[in-house]
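**Archive record**
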Amino acid sequence: MKEHQKSSQTEQRRAILWSVVFGILFVLGVAMATICGWYRVTFDLEFKELLYTLASPLKGTGESTVSQILHACLPIVLICTALYVVMAVLLWKKRELLPWARRVGALLCVVVLIVASVFSVYALRLPAYLQALNDKTTVYEDYYVDPEMVTITANGEPKNLIYIYLESMETTYASKEVGGAQYYNFMPNLTDLAKENLSFSDKAEGMLGGFHTPLGTGWTMSALLATTSGIPFSFPLGENGHNKMSQREYFASGLTTLGDILAEKGYRQEFLCGSDSSFAGRDTYFEQHGNYEIFDLYTAIDEHYMTEDETVWWGFTDELLYKIAKDELTELAAGERPFNFTMLTVDTHHIDGYFCKLCQNKYGNKLANVVDCADRQLASFLDWCREQDFYEDTVIVITGDHPRMDTTLVGDTDYYDRTIYNCFLNAVPTPAGKTTERLFTSFDLFPTTLAAMGFSIEGDRLGLGVNLFSTQSTLAEALGYDHLETEINKFSDYYIREFS
C-alpha cells in the first residue's frame, strides 16, 4: 500500500514537473510570437538595422520603447499563461483524462513554440540577412571614390554650413496633392521651403520628393555616416554582440568624411543633439572626423540650460535645442573662421514622437501634431537665421535622417516610396542637370553638400555618392536601386580592410 502511494506521488510530481516544463515552452512561444508580431506591425526595419540598433549600448536611448513593448505584449502573454494554468488545473481534476490530455497538451505546446519560432524568423527578415552575409560584393572596389584621391577646391570665399538633420522626416507627412501620403499636409512650412528654394526630388516637377535610404543607412548613426562619408554602416559587431563602433577607440579610422575635409579647409565645427551624444558612437565619430565640438544633453546641464531633473524622453526637447542653436551660432559667427554647425532634432523620434508644450492638438493623431510642431519650430528658427549677419554667407542644408522606424502615418505606404526630405538654402551653384525625377540616396548628400557650399570636386563623386549639381548619374540611377542595395548589403573585404 505504501509503495503504491509512493509510486502515485512520484507520478504526480512527474506530471506536475512536465506541466511546468511544457507550460514554459508554451509561454515562451506565445511571448516570442507576440513580441515579433508587434515588432512587425509597429516597425518597418530590416534585421540588419534592428541588430545594429539593439547592439548599441542603451545609454542615451529613450525608455518609451520598452514600455511600449510591455504595454502591448505583456497582457497577451499573461492572458495566455492564465489560460494554460486554468486548463492544466481542470485537466488535473479529470484524472481519467490526464494521460491522454498530457500527451496532446505537450504536443500542442511544442507546436506553438515551433510555429512561433518560424514566424519570428520571417517576421524579423532573418533569412535575407543571413544570405547577404554569405555573399561578397566588389561595389567598393568598382565605385568607391576616396576623397583623399581627388582634388576639392573652394570657389571664392568659403561658405559657412548649417546642417539640420530632422529626425525621421519623410516626405510622406505632406498631403497627397503635393506629393506626400496624407489627407492633410502636416509639414506645410517644409513644403513651401522646398518649393521656394532648391530641393532634389524623385517625383515630377511641383511635387515634394526626396532621397532613398538603402540598407545600412536606416537608423540615425548610419544616416549621419552615409550623408557625410558616402558609405553605409556595415562595420562588424564586437565579440560580445555589441555595436563595436560605439565602444572602440577609433571610429572608421580609414574614412575621409565631410568633417575631415572641412577641418582641413580651416572650418570650426560643432555637433548639437538633444540626447546623449555617446549613443552609437556619435561623439566619437564627429570628434575624430573633423574635431567637432560636441554639445549634448550633458553639456546642456553643465551649461545650466536645464537641470538633470528636467530631462525628458531622450534628453531635452527641440524647443531647447533651437534656443541653444541660436546661442552657439551667435558665438561661432563672431569668430574669424568659417563654421560648420550640424544639429539633430529628436522630437519626431519613434514611437509616435514627443508632444511638447509647443505642440497643438490640431489633428486626431499624436505624431501628426508632433510633425506639425516640428515644422513650425524649424520655420521659426530659419526666420531667426535670416535676420542674422551670417545668413547670406551661410548654406543651410535641411534633411531628414532616415524613414520612421515605427509605422504611424506611413503604414499604408510602400517603404520604397517613403523618401526623405531635403532642402538647400543659399546654395552656391545652379544645378547643371535636372532636379526632379532623380533617383538618389543618402550617399549623394556627401558630395552635394560640399558643392552647395561652393566647392569644386574633381569628377563630381565622393564615396558612393554623386554631386547632384552635376550632370552625372547617381549609382542608383546607373545600376538600379535594387541592385545597388543588394550589393551594399553583402559582405565586403574592402569595407572591413579600408574603413574599419
